[in-house]
Design brief:
five-stranded mixed sheet, about 15% strand, Beta-Lactamase, five-stranded antiparallel sheet, 14 helices, Helix Hairpins, 4 domains, about 525 residues
Length: about 525
């Protein structure tokens, strides 16, 4: 047992002894003379005075350095005092023999099971000596010598057995109490260590963590979250979620988390920190649940995307420069063919070609000039894009207009268009560029379906992102070409410039979205555009 616990038990034992002494002092005058025949009041007074003085010393001078020795001393003293009280109030006939039981019980608590058995043995010896001392060794100081009766002999054995049973039972209970207490203290220590370790990990992890309760009030955040958001921990604790100014509605996120297949929900936002600088942050929300599985709040993992965005910008710049380098090489090849046709036609015209030939050469000049103009226009659209002008528009109306134009462009009866989207689907996009991207995908699909087929366009909103899927049943794209289809001037068509899909890719990137393609030769292709709610 710890030193502090032993001292607390000694102090409590001192108060208990004072309580028992006060109880006996109060009951003494009220007891009939028959219950305490021939009581020696001088010995009683001396015993009570000893209890009061020693209890006062225990209370006043606790804690002590060696409490176990003091406990042994007090228990032995109490056994002797109980013996004197029993002797002064009738010996074997004394009603105060029960005080031995209290003494044994106290020894089991203060010492151990062995200590309780030792005090029980000491009490039995004292009590037996007291009874036999009346006849074998008469104690005339207490009362006149008398003969020991058979009832007194039986009482000796009964009391000794009672003391022994009390010592065994009380000692077992005390040992169990001590072991349980030590186990609880060990578990408490381990729990405190675990909590300290958890707090250390919580504060040391590089990802920002913010916990909110069911009322969307901040209950915890670590140092990384305070650094990313710019809001100090004391200023955030107990405050509503809006204290971070993230612009994310937790009420809209909760239904997404409580789906049958719960998954973390993430948002990319721009935080306006108190210092005035803005930082792009990805917030991943998960349910915060108690041990019984009940959701008690949300936890948001914050990740500063500043370095990633800067790296992405550098990669886009490098990719743009690399693309321009490849385009510079390819554009010369693309322009060379129409220039050669124009040069040959002009030379023949200058030499005075006949009328029919002159007319045919004129058509060649116009056609090749238009081809050159288209190459230059598409090149400029890709290399020098106009800045985005995003506004909330009905993208379903834009896509439907494009599909109507595509239906009129195809041969009658060869194209089946399937629309899988609602009539009203508002989203924030650049109207002209979004229309251009859908048009390029549609034209590319028509060119892939030489003998006609099905063009299926579907749109939906999933996890606050717009999904636009354009699928055809054309000839498909070979696996070796899938990695190059978005490169400028890469085309498998004889009359293609290779800028259509490259322009779609650039438009999607400018909107902060992604484009994915799935294709199998002979089974068709499917392009999926994923656009976020707003472009940061």
């Amino acid at each position: 047992m710890k030193l502090g616990d032993s001292n607390r038990l000694l102090r409590g034992f001192g108060f208990a002894r004072l309580g028992v002494a006060a109880l006996l002092l109060g009951l003494g005058p009220l007891l009939p003379q028959e219950l305490i025949p021939g009581a020696n009041r001088s010995i009683l007074a001396l015993a009570l005075l000893t209890v009061v003085v020693t209890s006062g010393v225990l209370i006043a001078f606790t804690p002590v350095i060696r409490p176990l020795r003091v406990a042994w001393l007090v228990c032995l003293l109490d056994t002797a005092l109980v013996t004197s009280v029993v002797a002064a109030t009738g010996g074997a006939r004394s009603i105060f023999a029960f005080l031995y039981v209290l003494s044994v019980t106290a020894a089991c608590v203060l010492l151990s099971r062995t200590g309780g058995l030792t005090i029980a043995a000491a009490g039995s010896v004292f009590y037996t000596a007291l009874v036999f001392g009346r006849t074998v060794f008469p104690l005339t100081v207490l009362e006149a010598p008398k003969e020991t009766t058979a009832l007194e002999i039986i009482t000796i054995f009964l009391n000794a057995g009672t003391f022994l049973i009390v010592a065994i039972v009380a000692g077992g209970l005390a040992e169990r109490f001590r072991s349980t207490r030590e186990e609880l203290e060990t578990k408490q220590t381990n729990l405190e260590d675990l909590e300290a370790f958890t707090d250390l990990v919580f504060d040391s992890v590089g990802t920002g963590l913010i916990a909110v309760d069911g009322e969307h009030r901040v209950t915890a955040l670590n140092r990384a979250a305070a650094r990313i958001t710019g809001v100090a921990t004391p200023q955030a604790l107990g405050q509503p979620w809006d204290v971070f100014g993230a612009g994310v509605s937790l009420a809209a996120i909760e239904p997404e988390i409580e789906t049958p297949d719960p998954r973390p929900v993430w948002r990319e936002v721009t935080l306006h920190r108190p210092g005035g600088d803005d930082v792009p942050v990805r917030m991943t929300f998960s349910a915060l649940r108690a041990g019984d599985g009940r959701r008690i709040g949300l936890i948001a993992a914050c990740e500063d995307l500043s370095a990633i965005r800067a790296m992405e910008a550098r990669m886009r710049a490098a990719d743009r420069l690399a693309s321009l380098g490849r385009m510079a090489a390819n554009i010369a090849h693309e322009i060379r063919n129409p220039l050669a046709s124009l040069s040959g036609a002009v030379e023949v015209l200058a030499a005075g070609a006949p009328g029919e030939t002159r007319e045919r050469l004129g058509h060649i000049v116009v056609k090749e000039t238009e081809r050159l103009n288209n190459i230059i226009r598409e090149f400029l659209e890709y290399a020098r894009p106009a800045p985005l002008s995003c506004a909330t528009v009905n993208v379903a109306e834009i896509v439907d207009e494009v599909l109507v134009l595509l239906e009129h462009r195809a041969e009658p009866g060869t194209l089946k268009v399937v629309r899988e989207f609602a009539a009203l689907l508002p989203w924030s996009v650049d109207r002209q560029q979004f229309r251009q991207a859908v048009w390029n995908l549609g034209v590319n699909a028509l060119q892939a379906m030489v003998e006609g087929g099905e063009l299926r366009v579907s749109m939906s909103v999933t996890r606050s992102r717009l999904l636009v899927r354009v699928a055809d049943t054309g000839e498909g794209i070979p696996a070796a070409d899938l990695g190059h289809i978005f490169e400028p001037f890469f085309s498998t068509k004889p009359d293609g410039t290779g800028l259509g899909l490259a322009l779609v890719h650039r438009i999607v990137q400018d909107h902060g979205g992604e484009i994915d393609v799935q294709s199998r030769p002979g089974l068709g292709s499917a392009f999926t555009l994923t656009l976020p709610t707003a472009h940061a």
